[in-house]
Amino acid sequence: MFQLTQEEAIGSRSQIATLNEEPAESRSQFATLKTKRGQNIKYLPYAFTRNGIAMLSSVLRSQTAVEVNVSIMRAFTVAQQFFAAYTFVSDLIRSAKKNIVLFDNYVDDTVLTILDKRKAKVSATIYTKSITKQFSLDLAKHNAQYQPIEVKPFDKVHDRFLCIDNTVYHIGASLKDLGKRWFSFNKMEMTAKELMGNVK
């Protein structure tokens, strides 16, 4: 926990929920700021870091505090997991030198955003089971503004595969679900050329 500076407190006025003058006994729980125009802040509020909130909710003994603590830990774990997965795939996409091919039956506009991390002149193709009207619209808007991505219908594959140049990765879930649940990324022994030989 740390105390805000005068400048930080002024800047946070619009975000503080309790902006009134409370009795002295409640000052440890609420930021008490004078809100009359032209007046200075009487008491500088305190703020918690992410770890501070977690520690506070750990020492409080009420059932609500326990539930809050569990929610905080879950939120941070999911956020870290999501970012780690997103970073891993983004780095793979950036490593492509010639082309990227994705086999994924459940794509949406978030997949287009991920593929946009590729270098200039690296082609990108998506093979997917069905192309919805909404995805067609998203794709058209995307391709009008960014490096085009080609999408082709293909219903002969169940699993997901990501080809980075001539390297093939087997993916345990759709790219749009990155980090939401555990899933694997496996580098396969077959080459992209061998995999693409089955596409007809």
Structure description:
It is a single chain. The chain has about 200 residues and is α/β, with parallel strands linked by helices. The chain folds into two domains: about 1-75, no CATH class; about 80-195, Endonuclease Chain A (Endonuclease, Chain A, 2-Layer Sandwich). The chain contains six helices and eight strands; from the N terminus they run βαβααβαβαββββα. The strands form two sheets. A six-stranded mixed β-sheet has the order 5-4-3-6-7-8. Strands 1-2 form a two-stranded antiparallel ribbon. Strand 3, helix 4 (about 110-115) and strand 4 (about 125-130) form a beta-alpha-beta unit. Helix 2 runs antiparallel to helix 3 (about 65-95). The radius of gyration is 25 Å and the shape is elongated. The N and C termini lie far apart (about 60 Å).
Describe this protein with a few key phrases.
Endonuclease, Chain A, 6 helices, single chain, two-stranded antiparallel sheet, elongated, 2 domains, alpha/beta, 6-stranded mixed sheet, 200 residues
Radius of gyration: 25 Å
Share in β-strands: 15-25%
CATH topology of the largest domain: Endonuclease, Chain A
CATH hierarchy class name of the largest domain: Alpha Beta
Averaging pLDDT over every residue, what do you get? Answer: 79
Q: How would you sum up the global shape?
A: elongated
Q: Quick one: how many beta strands?
A: 8
Provide the CATH architecture of the largest domain: 2-Layer Sandwich
The CATH homology group name of the largest domain: Endonuclease Chain A
Write down the oligomeric state. Answer: single chain
Number of helices: 6
Major sheet details: 6 strands, mixed
| Helix share, percent | 25-40%
Low-confidence runs of at least 5 consecutive residues:
14-36
Span between termini: 62 Å
Order of helices and strands: EHEHHEHEHEEEEH
Task: Count structural domains.
Answer: 2
SSE-based structural type: alpha/beta
**Which strand order does the major sheet show?**
5-4-3-6-7-8
